[in-house]
Design brief:
The structure is a homodimer. The first copy, chain A, has about 400 residues and is α/β, with parallel strands linked by helices. Chain A has 2 domains: about 150 residues, Aspartate Aminotransferase, domain 1 (Alpha-Beta Complex), CATH 3.90.1150; about 220 residues, Aspartate Aminotransferase, domain 2 (3-Layer(aba) Sandwich). Helices cover about 45% and strands about 15% of the residues of chain A. The mean pLDDT of chain A is about 95.
Chain lengths: ~400, ~400
């Protein structure tokens, strides 16, 4: 009965990363593949305390159906956070709570994209976004990103030629490359976008995880009417709760709420209340600082191990935070071959290929996550990877 | 910039029920409108205990990203429940955990429906399903339901003429009417569907809440290859957790998992673990029995109050369980007018109109929920409604 399947779902390739993650999740594998936050940093007892209080003090409400927009205290907190951290004036009325920012992508695809509409995506770019949008059958225009940000000429060409409905960006510590758009690149992107009837999505799951350097402007500061912000508690508290949000212009909120209602009525309300309680009782800035210290150390361990064990003629993309390192090997090396070799030795990572859309695939790239494994495993895993790379070079 | 909205979202009317629920949720309103389970029945302390255990014993795993299919113990429990309660052999591999059964509807729409595909829905029918499916722009074929179930001639006509991809049913204690399909009606529906290349969805949120009478066959027993089952913990434990599931044939599971992954990666994993722990530590059958006793009493109070305060020439649809009573007033009475009158006196219900698709709207119908309000409020609210109906009759 497979003939009953929709065309849209037939269009979506099974995620290669998903297959990799299954292999990588074996307990004896040193995995640099997933973007799994370090479980050592989950505030387990504080969340236990918060759960207890929520059920004790207001269990009846916390276990009941709730509204589609999300908990008002949680939306207030998010608005206040934008003000405190980025100086942005955002009304809680313009915030919708979603099941992680992944659902935000699905809802935006749903309310904005008809089959054949153009959208701009980063190349290489975040696979979850590509997958979510592709279910609405758009035509994807790719714009290359490098360590300065988007290629402005390519963006201009895409905007002029294809009139995309949206431009999807991860300007801070991008997935997969870890790079951030420079301040001047942001200005140039915003300047271009402002002349077109298009929306700019700033997906920002890692923005709070800055290890060094100075934060750059949020696109909302340049394009208040055209910017959609996505955020998430997954990387700073827990991913299991699936709590994210969309900040959207007023005209877009009503369609988004209708789509949210049709999608699942509302986000798990108990978890929303637990997070509100947690944020009330615990200094989140201290917790985020702890995560930053922890990840910065692990990143340093990984970079040092790469310098020690990898051949010299490789490139590591500059990154000031987030969860990933992007490595470019010598052109002759295929990271897919490297994967096959490494996984036999119980070390996993994600080859760069699946992050590219279209023809300009760099076969010699790889994404390494430094957040899941501890420093000892990082040294061991990178040493093993270095050995595999050297073996591949010798065998050429 | 509203021109950027997709055609699909422009197609979806704002839910009238949603507007009603907003009005009804004022604290001084006696509301028979929503399908909100009685908060007095939420197992608050047992869920508190379960949350504590989950975080204490395995917090790191419970707070981490998880797989898209859902927790394996939870899927095992659901499969076992089908076996114990309905004698159905279902493999946990064929179960996908969703954010309430509402998300199941969205995922099924996504993987099955292209624009213009036909589907069969009940008339009157569940608005959440109509809303979820309508985002995928199908053509809806309505089949009337009465207290025997689906109109077989109409179903046959729809199947023959429109070759629908799916037939959506709520055969037990249907929303909005509370009716159940008879055994012979189920057999006739299954017999018809078996000759067509179509799927039958049995949405069953209320199936466990049987107050009287004998359970009828699950469609899965007749149509093992063509039936999709939807279930939910919302009505028997808590709706806030948004935990539901799909049982689907093997060929459909992979597309559904891809769609789930694109939609939100996975369902809140902490809540899945809490429910597993709760089910391990608490006798769910006793809890369900408590809900049944409670709701049966409230239903009886409502029926008795209707007999006492409503005019004699009305019809109350026969129902053996669930959450709703369906009332048909004299033809001359508009339930929308009744709503306007009643809400001024702080009593709310849902007029029947929005549950109908197409032209055959019965303007004199209403849905009354007996699960949210206690017996005193039920008597008071029904008395007030009866007064309003009598006023409307006098003013004719």
């Amino acid at each position: 009965m497979e003939n009953l399947l929709s065309k849209r779902i037939k269009n979506v390739p099974e995620s290669f990363i998903r297959r990799i993650l299954k292999v990588s999740s074996q307990p004896d594998v040193i995995s640099f593949a997933g973007g799994l936050p370090s479980a050592d940093l989950f505030p387990i007892s504080a969340l236990e305390e918060a759960s207890y209080k929520v059920l004790k003090n207001n269990g009846k409400q916390a276990l009941q159906y709730a509204n589609s927009e999300g908990d008002s205290q949680l939306r207030n907190w998010i608005a206040q956070r934008y003000k405190d951290k980025q100086g942005l004036e955002i009304s809680p009325e313009n915030i919708l709570i979603t099941n992680g920012s992944q659902q935000a992508l699905d809802l935006l695809g749903k309310v904005l994209l008809d089959k054949g509409d153009s959208i701009v995506i980063e190349n290489p770019g975040y696979l979850g976004a590509i997958q979510a949008f592709s279910l609405y059958q758009p035509v994807m225009q790719t714009v290359a990103v490098d360590n300065q940000g988007m290629n402005i000429a390519a963006l201009e060409h895409a905007l002029n030629t294809h009139k995309p409905k949206l431009v999807y960006t991860v300007p801070n510590f991008q997935n997969p490359t870890g790079i951030s758009y420079s301040q001047s690149n942001r200005e140039a992107v915003a300047n271009l976008v402002s002349s077109f009837d298009t929306l700019l999505i700033q997906d920002d799951p890692y923005g709070e995880l800055r290890f060094s350097g100075k934060a750059k402007s949020n696109f909302m500061a340049f394009l208040p009417e055209q910017t959609i912000l996505l955020g998430s508690f997954s990387k700073i508290i827990t991913p299991s709760f699936r709590l994210g949000w969309i900040v959207a212009p007023k005209w877009l909120m009503k369609p988004l709420v209708i789509a949210k209602q049709a999608a699942d009525l509302h986000t798990n309300y108990f978890s929303q209340r637990v997070i509100v309680q947690y944020l009330e009782d615990n200094p989140i800035d201290e917790h985020v600082e702890k995560i930053i210290q922890f990840y910065a150390k692990q990143k340093q361990a990984m970079v040092q191990a790469i310098e020690k064990y990898f051949p010299k003629d490789i490139d590591v993309a500059e990154s000031e935070g987030g969860m990933f390192i992007w490595v470019t090997l010598p052109k002759s090396i295929s990271s897919m071959e490297l994967f096959d070799k490494a996984i036999k030795k119980k070390v996993a990572f994600v080859p760069g290929n699946p992050f590219y859309v279209g023809d300009e695939v760099k076969q010699n790239t790889l994404r390494l996550s430094y957040v899941t494994m501890d420093e000892v495993a990082i040294e061991e895993g990178i040493k093993c990877l270095g050995g595999c790379i050297n073996d591949l070079i010798k065998s050429l």
